[in-house]
Amino acid sequence: MDGNGRWARQRFLPRIAGHRRGVENVRSTVRACAQKGIEFLTLFAFSSENWRRPADEVSFLMQLFVIALEQEVAKLHENDIRFKVIGDLSRFEPRLTRLIAEAEQLTRDNTRLTLTVAANYGGRWDIIQAVTRMLKDKPQLADGFAEVDLSPYLSLAYAPEPDLFIRTGGEQRISNFLLWQLAYTEMYFTDTLWPDFDTAALDRAITSYRQRERRFGHTSEQLQAVAAESTLRHASEGR
Ligand code: IPE
Ligand code: MG
Fold first, then answer.
1. Cα separation of 187 and 172, whole Å?
2. Would the pLDDT of 187 be above 70?
3. pLDDT at 41 over 80
4. How far is the CA of 1 from the centre of ligand 2 (A)?
């Protein structure tokens, strides 16, 4: 969710006004995704590198996170949304980690949409913490392990790999987001600043995604053959 600061600067407002507007946009984006039947939405809110920002901006962002949790969690729950946070929470103040734990606990059985917020998250951190925990559990894997051994230890083990990655704000890079999980994800980059990324912008991203062919290493001809076969099978089953 990039571009809050620039959105504010364009309006001669302080950066924090952009972050406030960014949170409002999270609310409408979550609503739009739930309405579209999207089952998993993961938002990169704060990276492990964002601590390098001026102290007052960091502390405002933390405050904003606390306020957002206090105000929104009940509404998420009413809307059958499961809330999760991934990242290294050890650096957050106890009040924030307590709110996160309560929110996760309250919403744990909800099934309509899983909303994950990545906070103090880094893709490399995730891989390292996963390997560390895996080897602690299963020291015998130190001689070699497979993807299936590691997957359960990654932060997003509860979610399928993402279909679509969207980066707002004009930058065309991953910036240490879900490095492992993005292996086959379709990438979408837009100049639109996060506070301006409205439902129409989301629709444009989804339309772009739908026009792509996901081959997962296969050839186009193989996929067409499989599609044709399944059409035939459906036809012969009278569907
Ligand atoms: C993204 O907006 C929000 C956070 C990283 C918390 P930025 O703050 O990066 O906005 P720009 O890039 O300065 O416009
Ligand atoms: Mg930025």
1. 9
2. yes
3. yes
4. 8
What pLDDT, in 10s, does the model give residues 58-71? 999 999 999 999 99
> Which residues make up the environment of ion ligand 2, defined by Cβ < 5 Å?
2
CB atoms within 10 A of CB 166: 22
CB of 46 closer than 6 A to ligand 1? yes
Ligand 2 centre from 105 Cα, in Å? 31
Rounded Cα distance between 98 and 151, Å, is 27
Cβ 8 under 6 angstroms from ligand 1: no
Give the active site residues: 2, 50
From the CA of 3, give the closest atom in ligand 1: 14
Query: Can you give the pTM of this predicted structure?
Result: 0.92
Shortest CA distance to 63 belongs to which of 106, 102, 92? 92
Percent of the chain with pLDDT over 70: 99
Quickly list H helices, 151-213: 199-210
**Phi-psi label, residue 156: left if phi above 0, alpha if psi -120 to 50, beta otherwise:** alpha
Tell whether ligand 1 has an atom less than 6 A from the beta carbon of residue 26.
Answer: no
What pLDDT is stored for residue 196 in this prediction?
98
Closest CA to 45 of 75, 2, 6: 2
SS3 for 18? helix
Q: Minimum-distance ligand to the CA of 23?
A: 1
Q: Which domains are delineated in the chain?
A: 4-238 (3.40.1180.10)
